[in-house]
């Protein structure tokens, strides 16, 4: 976010790009042609008010149709993340469903949304005030922080992967603090050390 998104956003703002926040795209108005996909209107709501943007021949539209972090919930050190949200509240999945009704060639969102409990995953972040984990990680893998992408423990019940970025990971990160993150892909299986699923676990 700090190394890519913020600099790009700042650059785009300097170029006159208008970022409209608190908006939800509800639908896209297609031009009636079978030869190519052409968008004429963006229908959206902003602060509950329905609005519309008209597009010209040379405008480009980039759409997020579905998102792996849509409707995610957050746990804490003492509590697991709340129950699984399947209501498509984020809107990106419902947008894809609307688009497919008009243009079936745009894929099948239900391949994803009808199996959320089987495809969900858990992401966690660890903040530490010493280098113990980093030292053990480098000894085990031979990788210094920031020199590898994900390292997956393939025999882990949770199918756990860890990502150890170069430090500092955040711009204002204190010098004595380290940050790394991990993923549990088999979220319905019991762990090897903690004998329950990762979705039942708190940060602790």
Descriptive key words:
204 residues; alpha+beta; four-stranded antiparallel β-sheet; three-stranded antiparallel β-sheet; 5 helices; 7 strands; 19% helix
* Stretches with pLDDT under 50, minimum 5 residues: none
Residue-averaged pLDDT? 91
Please summarize the sheet with the most strands.
4 strands, antiparallel
Which structural class do you get from the secondary structure elements? alpha+beta
Helicity level: 10-25%
Q: Please report the distance between the alpha carbons of the first and last residues.
A: 26 Å
Shape: globular
Strand order, main sheet: write it out. Answer: 4-7-6-5
- Helical run tally: 5
**Beta-strand share of residues:** 15-25%
Strands, count: 7
Oligomer: single chain
Radius of gyration: 21 Å
State the order of secondary-structure elements, H for helix, E for strand. HEEEHHHEHEEE
Write a brief structural summary.
The protein has 204 residues and is of the alpha+beta class. Helix content is 19%, strand content 21%. It has five helices and seven strands; from the N terminus they run αβββαααβαβββ.
Detailed description of the structure:
The chain has helices at 5-14, 92-102, 110-113, 116-119, 132-141; strands spanning 23-30, 39-46, 49-54, 122-128, 150-152, 160-163, 178-184. It has five helices and seven strands. It is of the alpha+beta class and 204 residues long. The mean pLDDT is 91. Strands 4-7-6-5 form a four-stranded antiparallel sheet, with no helix packed on it. 19% of the residues lie in helices and 21% in strands.
């Amino acid at each position: 976010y700090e190394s890519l998104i913020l600099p790009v956003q700042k650059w785009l703002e300097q170029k006159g790009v208008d970022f409209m926040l608190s908006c939800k795209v509800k639908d896209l108005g297609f031009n009636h042609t079978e030869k190519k996909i052409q968008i004429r209107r963006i229908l959206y709501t902003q602060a509950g008010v329905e609005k519309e943007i008209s597009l010209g021949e040379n405008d480009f539209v980039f759409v997020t149709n579905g998102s792996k972090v849509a409707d995610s919930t957050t746990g804490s050190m003492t509590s697991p993340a709340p129950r699984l949200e399947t209501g498509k509240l984020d809107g990106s999945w419902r947008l894809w469903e609307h688009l497919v009704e008009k243009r079936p060639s745009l894929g099948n969102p239900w391949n994803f949304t009808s199996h959320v409990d089987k495809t969900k995953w858990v992401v966690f972040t660890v903040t530490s005030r010493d280098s113990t984990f980093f030292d053990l990680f480098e000894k085990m893998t031979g990788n210094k922080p920031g020199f590898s992408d994900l390292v997956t423990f393939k025999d882990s019940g949770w199918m756990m992967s860890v990502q150890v970025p170069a430090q500092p990971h955040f711009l204002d990160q204190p010098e004595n603090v380290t940050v790394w993150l991990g993923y549990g892909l088999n979220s319905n299986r019991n762990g090897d050390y903690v004998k329950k699923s990762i979705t039942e676990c708190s940060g602790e």
